[in-house]
Give the backbone structure.
Amino acid sequence: MAVFRRRVDIVAHHAQATGEVRAALEDDFHHFRVWVRHHEGEVTAIGGEALRYPYSLCPQACDQLQQLLGMTLNRIAHSVTRQTDASHQCTHLFDLAGLAIAAAARGTHQRRYEINIGRRIDNRTRAILIRDGNQDLTWDVNGTLIEGPAPYAGINLREGMARWALNTLSEEAAEAALLLRRCTLISMGRAYNLDEQIHASSTARCYSQQPERAERALRMKGSTLDFSYQASALCDQDQAWLRQKR
């Protein structure tokens, strides 16, 4: 099983009460972009782009981001889940939009997250998050249970972690923890040959997996890449786009 890697790059342009944030995400399974424009503390325009994705209908989920129009900027990235139903969004576009909106609310100009989830040995792995060049989080994980260090020891990634993180940690620490949680869980896909799938599973967990469209969301064979030994390639083709202004 290869090392799982993800990079998230965020670049914002602020001018008094108006601004624009661009964000890109790339990992073994996905490559997405989101842009958000805001004025006087409110989302005034938003859009997404799917460059690499697991199912044929994933790009349609870019339109679902319009549900965030008019949202009040919030420093907590997870707040997008209170604006609209996450299960009808692309999980990764939606997460990226939340990060971009939080960056706008905080006045952040630039941010980079780099996530590395090691090969699993006897179901155990080490999950690492680097924020702006500093290693901020390192977890020892057994299955879906964080074994250490404190205060994360004993937390199950699948059982109420979001609520715990948002109620216990600072806003930026919670943001990082929930991003690392997402990556640790999806890295499990590295244990399977996903190209054996014909179409998305009807789990109702995301846009493509909604029962009414799962069988039409065909597997994009060959869409999984391996960045185990080329982490610098992640989001490389996004850098010029990130610094553009609409």
In short: The longest helix spans residues 91-106. The chain is about 20% helix and 30% strand. The first strand starts at residue 4 and ends at 15.
